[in-house]
Amino acid sequence: MRLRPIGLALRALLCAEGNATLKLMSVAELETKREHESFFTTTYASLVNWARKSSLWPYPFGTACCAIEFMSVVSSHYDIARFGSEVVRFSPKQSDVLMVLGTINDKMGPVLKQIYDQMAEPKWVISMGACATCGGFYRAYHVMQGIDEIIPVDVYIPGCPPTPEAVLDAIIKLQQQVENDTRLSYERHPRQTRLKTPEFDATVHGLQGPPRTVVRFLEENQEIQGPIATAFKQRFPDDLMHVREFRGDLSITVKRDHVKEILRTLKHDPAFDFKLLLDVTAIDYLSERASRYDVVYHLLSLSNKHRLRLKVPVPGEDPAIDSAIDIWKAADWAEREAYDMFGIQFKGHPDLRRILTHAQFTGHALRKDFPPGQRTPCTDTFDLPVVERARKYVESMGLAHPQILNIGPQHPAMHGTFRLQAAVDGEKIIDADTEIGFLHRCFEKMAETHMYWQVIPFTDRLNYMSAMMNGVAYAMAVEKMFGVEIPKRAQYIRVILSEFSRIADHLVCIGTNLVDLGAITNFWYGFRPREEIYDLIESCCGGRLTVSYVRIGGVAEDIPADFVTRSRALLDSIPKYVDDIEKMNRHNKIFKMRTEGITAICAEDAIDWGFTGPVLRAAGVPYDIRKWFPNYDYDKFEFEIPIGDRGDVYDRYLVRIEEIRQSLRIIKQALENLPEGAVQIHDRRISLPPKKGVYSNIEDLMNHFELIQDGILPPIGEVYSYWEAANGELGFYLISDGSKRPYRLRCRGPCFYIFQAFNHLVKGAYLSDAVAALGSFNIIAGELEK
């Protein structure tokens, strides 16, 4: 830190040779003197602050979309090291900047507060994104309305999520604050005593029960002659209540008395052969029906490609039904969720407790009479059942007490929001439990309080690694309700961007999985093409991670003029990155030792757990919606479905690598055959009229006003729509009451059914194997916890 020469020249320096003589030194003399003496003058505080601002050590408290954008900042594309913040630390005692990246819900709140309290002074906090700052658009029963309810904040970053450039700008702003800080190291900043008053009721408006027309529609009994309906009538004539088909979906309603026998028959009888339980959920009709609830099962037969929706009415005064967990393992978490959200008691379930909301939560949030924004404070985290079970192992193992290891949430091995409690013998896992819900953002309740088109931004934040695909799946459900088909050009645009999103999703999955194994080079090879894909998507809609490009009836607007050229350039560049990743790993002895045979699962068990997507295909089951139930001309594209034979971590890696190559083939064919024409359906019930018409005639003006004011109004109905997303079957179960908001919107996320098997698969494995396995499952918290 040098002083200006003119400043030095004006300084009076004493020369002591018997007497003190005051002498003014010239600039030239000072420059000569400086060559021989290295010194600077400053204050101690300025020096300390300069050092602190130039070497910030961030703790990335990541939860959601913002955490992914922060990962981009760490990559070479943006290079946070240029700003003195490359030393990322996952230990609060080694960090001085807590970067809160994404939504903090009430369940995660105590974890955040604990980590903040463990950090030494001086410490700073950056709040990244609207969700961390104020709850974002989640005015919901489980979402904190800003982290400054519990910890102070120094810098807020606007955006949802903010761009990487905004993160770098926030670091610069924090550096400026640090540089001007005048307090001593042990002094607390005055802002740390000023926190926002918690908002424990963020309800915007309440909900009501369905109109009688919906109940009459759902209870309509039709004469259906299909093979499943005919066989069901013959087998269970006394239990049958209603049979109905709508938009190609078969729905059968039965009495609850013999539901377990019916479910077992549907699985094992060759006439049905519904080996795959896709989902279990519930519906609340309040007092509009004698039986307040329906428990709903979605089933798939892989042998005959039939789907079935089985519904069982359950009275409000006795909301209980037999558990199906001894028929399908997939019923485990889904029944717990139905209990958590609706209060349905599943008799015989071995572990019926809350799963998404925290243990202190009051009420059942998806009941229609539960206020959408009514929060329950959470003050602590609690041990999982494995701790109690572990006490039984103590005597047989000759231990004084069980050895319990807690990993997460906010442990890098658990990818931020997951928690694993394991009973261990050395490094070997004897028993384990997982806990989720630390990013439960109340998607389904929020969908019920918003218009149909307002739901699209919420879908982006499910699997935010491939947000485009979420919007497509949701829009397909609403379009199915209307019974319409979107223009061919819009279909092909959806296909191209969905396949690019699949590639980006797989690249990040592979890169982060390999980072977990210590192979960090792969991260850079995976993130570079991912950034280029995001640049392409951003050119279409202005958004990188959460795009909101899909519209019900098509897409927001046509692709830019250079889209095809840029897409073909990506088709040329991406294979080089994939080949480099393959060279480093496919035959790498260390990588194969860490992955081969780890958490292997056979095809039968994978189906029983409800697996879909790459994890199921790695187990040898070639189920892919694009081939089995093709839409958008997928049946016209030439591509293969890669499968494995062991279902282990290595096979999951190989399947995703090959799926990237197959997606490139699909994109190439779609670009070659991209049709001309409209990108939005010409249906006045759905699409806004052209702006020119709005300004020139009253009919278009009225149509525009009604769609904006009242939203789209689908017919009364009930549909289940599905899409082959990056992690498997992404399904949306939609009930319309004819109004502008969904009466019920259920999201069947593939991660939910994959992750429930995790603690079972890691038993008997080593802790390092659990880390490798988690990355290979590609669990995305937004999709997992809704």
Please explain how this structure is put together:
The chain has about 775 residues and is α/β, with parallel strands linked by helices. It has 29 helices and 21 strands. The strands form 7 sheets. Strands 7-8-11-10-9 form a 5-stranded mixed beta sheet. Strands 3-4-5-6 form a 4-stranded parallel beta sheet. Strand 1 and strand 2 (about 20-25) form a beta hairpin. Helix 4 (about 65-75) crosses helix 7 (about 165-180), helix 15 (about 465-480) packs antiparallel against helix 16 (about 490-515) and helix 16 packs antiparallel against helix 23. The longest helix has 29 residues, at about 490-515. The protein is globular.
The coarse silhouette is globular
Rounded to the nearest angstrom, the distance between the terminal CA atoms is: 52 Å
Count the beta strands: 21
Helix content: 25-40%
The biggest beta sheet reads: 5 strands, mixed
Please report which band the strand proportion falls in: under 5%, 5-15%, 15-25%, 25-35%, 35-45% or over 45%.
15-25%
Low-confidence stretches: 1-22
The secondary structure category is alpha/beta
User: What oligomeric assembly is this protein in?
Assistant: single chain
Cα-atom radius of gyration = 29 Å
Question: Largest sheet, order of strands side by side?
Answer: 7-8-11-10-9
* Number of helices in the DSSP assignment: 29
Overall pLDDT level: 88
